[in-house]
Amino acid sequence: DAGVTQSPTHLIKTRGQQVTLRCSPKSGHDTVSWYQQALGQGPQFIFQYYEEEERQRGNFPDRFSGHQFPNYSSELNVNALLLGDSALYLCASSWQGTGLYEQYFGPGTRLTVT
Amino acid sequence: GQQLNQSPQSMFIQEGEDVSMNCTSSSIFNTWLWYKQEPGEGPVLLIALYKAGELTSNGRLTAQFGITRKDSFLNISASIPSDVGIYFCAGYGGSNYKLTFGKGTLLTVNP
Fold first, then answer.
1. How many CB atoms lie within 10 A of CB A98?
2. Tens digits of residue pLDDT in A26-66
3. Is A85 helix (H, G, I), strand (E, B) or coil?
4. Chain A partners of B63 at a C-beta cutoff of 8 Å?
5. Distance between CA atoms of A93 and A31, rounded to whole angstroms?
6. Which of A84, B17, B18, B97 has the fewest CB atoms within 10 Å around its CB?
7. Residues 6+ away with beta carbon under 8 Å from A97
């Protein structure tokens, strides 16, 4: 049973560039959420996708956008990167049915902006 | 916005000791989750709590959903070296979709 997978593992970008991170949910899951985790902090909710639509968003600017594909996988896009965007980006999946509240996390993508 | 206050920030204990940590909020949460995160990994779900007063165990871990719905507790009995990591409380408040996390408790176990 494959868990949540994310790619790439690490990424280094320059200020002003754009980045795309990818996530494949756990088998049987249909909902994907994205989180940003700064060093020494808990994960912060960015947004959640279900049925290929964003259904809730946290306090993040429009530079952060996403997409969900028919196979439930998802992408997180960040435009005009700032130094403060350096963080671990986590993807979590869940099942819209009885397992909605139990989110399972991937290993994350470590983004460094220089 | 909703915030979770987690304490203590860190704990350094001897192997075999019991551990307690807690999480409080100024607003009501409908569901509480406890996660453990190790270096270079994503958080791993340990226990989920759905009803006020609920007490749930997972091996040596026991968690409780506070009666006021504004707090939750996690206990680890007879700690072992592999318990080392950061423990996060998390919860759903006004939204069924947005999971709010505490800042974590760093647990170190001395063999």
1. 7
2. 999 999 999 999 999 999 999 999 999 999 999 999 999 99
3. helix
4. none
5. 5
6. A84
7. none
